[in-house]
Write a structure and sequence with these properties.
It is a single chain. With 260 residues, the protein is mainly beta. The protein has 2 domains: 109 residues; 102 residues, no CATH class. Helices cover 7% and strands 49% of the residues. It has 2 helices and 17 strands. The strands form 5 sheets. Strands 4-6-8-9 form a 4-stranded mixed sheet. A 4-stranded mixed sheet has the order 14-11-10-17, with no helix packed on it. The longest helix has 12 residues. The relative contact order is 0.16. About 15% of the residues have low confidence.
Length: 260
């Protein structure tokens, strides 16, 4: 990797060592273990666009569903120095408050229209995953001329109206249901909910994946809303929550209501 950290002054190093030993710990400090750094390692894909500019697609694996993608932009972390041949990008991550499932969750960033390459004197692109102002992961990819065009990103969709409930009404067997509305960019897509495999560590938290499949043919560019639904008859587990994972890396968490 074509970057190096600035030397840490002796006084700061000694202070960090005392904190690591437990002397006068700062409660506001954020500490990242080596295992977390491996989890937050960005996976980079760089593509050459027809106009000579580049598109960067990034997937960063996060330790729970409580993380979301923030802004992706050109920049250099304050504690890092780069060589002149390196182009640097910052990938902001946000930790959401509230309930989160302890399952590995991909977070996606996209950055288009990058003017980089030999003409700009750049041979390497380095991306830094940033959380609360700290570098928690990084990766590099060489910048090479190519005739490969960017692969199509997952269809950009919005979702609304999510609802999950356990039906215990008298006179019928118990049943479990999840429903929502997906707003597709054209009518040329099929949307469905699929039970994820593997599930998380908590069996009472159901994980569903929203699958978007393109249909053959040419379709008008009209936003189309469609309902999706997941049903289980006589569920073996009494779910208390549902996580719906969307194809662009976002996720929606639902509390299960009981109809009795």
């Amino acid at each position: 990797m074509a970057w190096r950290s600035r030397p840490v002054p002796r006084q700061r190093a000694e202070s960090s060592a005392r904190s690591a030993r437990g002397a006068e710990p700062r409660r506001s400090a954020v500490h990242y273990t080596s295992q977390m750094r491996e989890i937050f390692q960005p996976q980079l894909r760089l593509h050459l666009e027809p106009d000579g500019e580049y598109t960067l697609n990034v997937v960063t694996l996060c330790p729970s569903s409580g993380y979301a993608a923030g802004r992706a932009h050109v920049g250099v972390p304050p504690e890092v120095r780069l060589t002149g041949e390196t182009f640097s990008v910052l990938l902001e991550l946000h930790a959401r408050r509230g309930h989160a499932l302890q399952v590995l969750t991909p977070v996606r960033h996209h950055l288009r229209h990058l003017k980089i390459g030999p003409k700009q004197g750049k041979s390497t692109l380095t991306a830094f995953a940033m959380l609360r102002g700290h570098v928690v992961g990084s990766a590099s990819v060489p910048i090479q001329p190519s005739h490969e065009h960017p692969q199509k990103d997952p269809a950009a969709v919005d979702t609304t109206g999510w609802y999950s409930w356990l039906n215990r009404m008298p006179g019928a067997l118990p049943s479990f249901h999840v429903s929502g509305v997906v707003h597709l960019p054209t009518p040329g897509y099929e949307a469905r909910l699929v039970k994820a495999a593997p599930q998380g560590i908590n069996p009472r938290e159901l994980i569903l994946d929203l699958k978007i499949t393109p249909l053959p043919g040419t379709w008008p560019q009209v936003v189309t809303s469609t309902s999706v639904r997941y049903d289980e008859g006589s569920p073996a587990i009494e779910y208390t929550g549902v996580l719906v994972r969307e194809p662009d890396g976002d996720a929606v968490h639902l509390d299960v209501e009981v109809a009795a």
